[in-house]
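Example 9 (inverse folding). The structure is encoded as follows.
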């Protein structure tokens, strides 16, 4: 029988020479570096060296080019994405678009939210927000009906993860968005754990805002986060967290007030961190070229192979079993998992460990079938104390 993982995506491994001396199962946290990122960073450097201040005529358009690369991956229309440095900052920008009247002050999100996002919304309570956290019954999933039930006429915002970082559970964003829109609330969908491995179609989902970064499955390194704003909403908001690049004419240097750009640039703050956009270009381009649907197909086969190993070794699976509910990573636990994870990393079997969740691993489009077996064989050796 043909090996389902003997696939044409392995042809892309040549772009990732770093894969040759490690087993890279950490793409949910840090995607492997593409060789081209070095050339792209050199291009940034050369522009700086040779053109000095006039390099900005190349650097600034890179913001729109990066946004277009992201837009392609999330099926967003042109002009609806802007680049930022990280999701925390993006959440603060989005939060600053709103005020909290007592009759509409609820911010509803899941208790399994990535902490940085929660920190931003909890701080909004000082300005009148009322955060409502929907608990998880099993520590892994969030009941969609419970999410929808928590969203009522008093709800202003629903900032949720598309895929939960600690379990890879995929939320039913479409259903949650439908409920939010019914009561006039806005969903802010954090796609950090889905972009590049689970298809995201912001248009189909109907979200008001979506965001994410490039560090993980996009293989772009830190500093190239993105914000999507639904086109009909772009001009509705005037973020208080702002800066001169959000101005309609930054180089007119008008004083004293902001006069917001009509475009999605109105969500931009100060000077964009352009080097990070060059660095992220290769990964974003490759993922756009391959297409996330193909990546997802392979990912599902590989994560199932990982789950089979977890079962065989008698470990506790902390990710959903059904394919349609699990994202690109697999999370599992056992006594001593944190120490085993440390040793796996020392041996260049890259993975991570999260408290109460366990070891997280994520094969990606560049993973070879045998690497899954190699990983679990190594883990087994370390666990049994037999491997040096
Ligand atoms: C779901 C999710 N959101 C956000 C982040 C990170 O946020 P930031 O870009 O602010 O570091 C991560 C992981 O680092 C994440 O998994």
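The amino acid assigned to each position is listed next.
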């Amino acid at each position: 029988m043909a090996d389902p993982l003997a696939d044409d995506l392995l042809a892309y491994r040549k772009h990732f020479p770093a894969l040759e001396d490690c087993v890279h199962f950490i793409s949910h946290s840090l995607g492997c570096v593409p060789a081209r990122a070095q050339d792209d960073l050199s291009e940034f450097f050369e522009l700086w060296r040779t053109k000095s201040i006039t390099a900005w005529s190349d650097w600034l358009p890179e913001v729109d080019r990066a946004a277009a690369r992201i837009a392609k991956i999330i099926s967003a229309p042109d002009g609806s994405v802007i680049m930022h440095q990280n999701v925390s900052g993006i959440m603060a920008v989005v939060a600053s678009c709103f005020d909290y009247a007592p009759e509409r002050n609820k911010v509803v999100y899941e208790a399994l939210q990535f902490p940085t996002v929660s920190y931003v919304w909890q701080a909004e309570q000082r300005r009148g927000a009322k955060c409502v956290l929907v608990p998880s019954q099993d520590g892994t999933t969030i009941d969609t009906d419970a999410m929808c039930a928590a969203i009522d006429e008093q709800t202003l915002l629903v900032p949720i993860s598309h895929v939960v970082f600690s379990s890879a559970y995929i939320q039913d964003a479409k259903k949650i968005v439908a409920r939010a829109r019914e009561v006039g609330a806005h969903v802010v969908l954090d796609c950090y754990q889905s972009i590049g491995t689970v298809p995201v179609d912001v248009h189909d989902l109907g979200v008001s805002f979506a965001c994410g970064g490039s560090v993980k499955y996009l293989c772009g390194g830190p500093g190239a986060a993105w914000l999507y704003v639904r086109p009909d909403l772009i001009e509705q908001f005037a973020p208080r967290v702002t800066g001169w690049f959000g101005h309609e004419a930054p180089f007119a240097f008008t004083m004293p007030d902001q006069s917001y750009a009509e475009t999605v640039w109105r969500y931009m703050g100060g000077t964009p961190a352009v080097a990070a956009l060059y660095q992220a270009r290769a990964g974003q381009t490759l993922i756009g070229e391959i297409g996330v649907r193909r990546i997802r197909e392979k990912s599902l086969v590989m994560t199932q192979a990982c789950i089979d190993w977890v079962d065989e070794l008698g470990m506790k699976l902390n990710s959903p079993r059904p394919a349609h509910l699990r994202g690109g990573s697999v999370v599992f636990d056992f006594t001593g998992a944190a120490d085993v994870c440390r040793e796996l990393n020392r041996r260049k079997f890259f993975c991570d460990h999260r408290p109460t969740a366990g070891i997280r691993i994520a094969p990606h489009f560049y993973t070879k079938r045998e690497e899954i077996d190699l990983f679990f064989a190594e883990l087994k050796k370390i666990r049994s104390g037999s491997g040096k």
